[in-house]
Amino acid sequence: MDITALYQVFQACGGVTTDSRHTPQGSLFVALKGSNFNGNAFAAAALEKGCRYAVVDEAGYMPEGDKRYLLVDNCLEALQALARHHRRTMGTRLLAITGTNGKTTTKELVAAVLSQSLHILYTQGNLNNAIGVPLTLLGLKKEHEIGVIEMGASHPGDIRELVEIAEPDYGLITNVGKAHLQGFGSFEGVVRTKGELYDFLRGRKDAAIFIHDDDACLKQMAHGLRRVPYGTAEGLYVHGRVTGNSPFLSFDWQTESDVTMHHVETKLIGEYNFPNALAAVAVGRYFGIAADKIDSAIAAYRPQNNRSQLKQTADNTLIIDAYNANPTSMRAALNHFHLMQAPHKMVILGDMRELGGESAREHQAIVELVESFGFERVWLVGGEFAAARHPYAVFADAKVLAAALQQHKPHGMTVLLKGSNSVQLSSVVDYL
């Protein structure tokens, strides 16, 4: 089936699903494959539950004569081609956001700001990969004035694949740091992959990037592109300064044409979120959002999903930053926690995953940083931290940690929980 015919089917349906457990009435089911499943085997169930058509790539799953089955060469490629075709048909302005740290928070802040005055579509949750980006794009409707698309990467070429599907008009790279080194091979591999967004935009007419002007690496990568800069230096499109961060970030900002500063009190933990908030200001002003609406949108935003969340329990104050971790974000979180005003500080750190051959060295560097800060109590979780040289208590996994917390529960502490999502530090929150 060619893309034009498939698009006509898509238009006759009420949406797209790739999950046979979630089958909105009249939707189009696309049978994707994974390492442990074959979506073709669930096509019949999806149709029985309410889907109007099913796209499959194995003819053996098609009952003879049943015109509800649509055969393609590869279901994932068909989904991606369908999304690109729909994006071109809609012609909506698109902003792509990627980066090592802060891309989801930045996406959420940008969406909160733009939605004050515009009809927008933006990535829900963490649907930022080769499946999530197409599914997001297929949600574009005529009333949407702009789309904000988050793009994640763990291997070279990932961003190139996503931008060739989404074809964005604008780009924003939050930063480039040490993450997924096992997949990228090196920090230079991270730089090249994130830079694939810039590479695409260089060939797109009237494209522009929103760039953190304080980041020398990004500035070096951004040659030949029209820039909308934000940072701390006066004279930029948007400049600002941090005014507080214990524990919540507050900051002032000003555009190059403003006479006075604007002030924002956020619910974001950590000064490392300042560039993310300032990026949202820059995007908002560029697309005509009034300053007071920008301020109120950022002030109202509350982090979720274990991303720099502040939680007060009956016994302790928790800073939960356990969605992800890499050397760059770990250092930023620890530096902020060190400077934060609190009488009794405890850190619970989980392994940083997917660092490949750099893992031992990076974990050793983190425990040395922790030692230099002199926190009152330090507990570490995982085999990588266990292999490092340090004087701290180490727990094999989150279950062992939970058992220890039940026996020796902290009281009156401010606790930072930081680690890769797979370590599951968020599962011990109830014991704190």
Layout of strands and helices, then pairs:
Blueprint: H1 3-12, E1 16-17, E2 28-30, E3 33-34, E4 37-38, H2 43-48, E5 53-56, E6 69-71, H3 75-90, E7 93-98, H4 103-114, E8 120-122, H5 132-137, E9 146-150, H6 158-166, E10 170-173, H7 181-184, H8 187-194, H9 196-202, E11 208-212, H10 216-221, E12 227-231, E13 238-245, E14 248-255, E15 262-269, H11 274-286, H12 291-300, E16 309-312, E17 317-321, H13 327-339, E18 345-350, H14 359-373, E19 377-381, H15 383-387, E20 393-395, H16 398-407, E21 414-418
Parallel strand pairs: 1-2, 2-5, 5-6, 7-9, 7-10, 8-9, 10-11, 11-12, 12-13, 17-21, 18-19, 18-21, 19-20
Antiparallel strand pairs: 3-4, 13-14, 14-15, 16-17
Folded structure, characterized:
This protein is globular. Helix content is 35%, strand content 22%. α13 packs parallel to α14. By secondary structure, it is of the alpha/beta class. The longest helix has 16 residues. β19, α15 and β20 form a beta-alpha-beta unit.
Share of residues in helices:
25-40%
Measured by DSSP, the beta-strand proportion falls in 15-25%
Oligomeric composition of the shown chains: single chain
Shape: globular
Structural class: alpha/beta
How much is the average pLDDT? 93
DSSP strand tally: 21
Biggest sheet descriptor: 9 strands, mixed
Low-pLDDT parts are: none
Rounded to the nearest angstrom, the distance between the terminal CA atoms is 56 Å
Number of H- or I-type helical stretches: 16
Radius of gyration: 23 Å
> Strand order, biggest sheet?
8-9-7-10-11-12-13-14-15
